[in-house]
Amino acid sequence: LFDFTYAVLEALDGSQRTLGVFCDLSKAFDCVNHFLLIEKLSYYGIRGVPLDWIQSFLEGRKQSVNITQQVGLSACPSWLETKVGVPQGCILSPVLFLLYIND
Question: Where are the domains positioned within the chain?
């Protein structure tokens, strides 16, 4: 970050044109379409058992939110299946995400 700021300030001091392109990838893991990811993995040559394993790893995952209102009282809705996203905290997720956005 320091090097970037220094380079921008140097360019501005030298009356050079300065351009910055920034990409916000927050919540990016939550937006991965399972179908498109599987198609891309197949395109990159991942087929057979490894592709089937990744597909079964992604599909059929469920999540729930438990809200505790008071001591002893809680509201827990039913489990919902996740249709998009890769699991956060999983060692495979960053690799899957990078393959997903590699166009």
Answer: 25-101
